[in-house]
What we know:
The protein is an all-alpha fold. Helix content is 58%, strand content 0%. It has 2 domains: 15-46, no CATH class; 54-85. It has helices at residues 16-31, 35-43, 57-83. Helix 1 packs across helix 2 (35-43).
Amino acid sequence: MARTKGAKNRYPAMPAALLQEAIAQLMIAVGKGEQWAIQEALKRIPNAMPEPVPGGVQERAINARIFELQEMEQRLKQLEDAAGLKHENE
Length: 90
């Protein structure tokens, strides 16, 4: 069921003191080598992003998009010249 516009979350935020205590307890458990604590800590670490390969698919796609935009800009300039309009950068 959707909430009405401007409605707040149903659950109040965790009090700051409780959050700090939870973090402290988690740090103690990780220090003791507790498996569950280590797993919880690792869940919070974001996955590594793969490094883009030079000359790879992503780079070619970006370069193609840049070329497309430059070509579109040239066409627009030609149309504006033909219509006798001023360019934005002039």
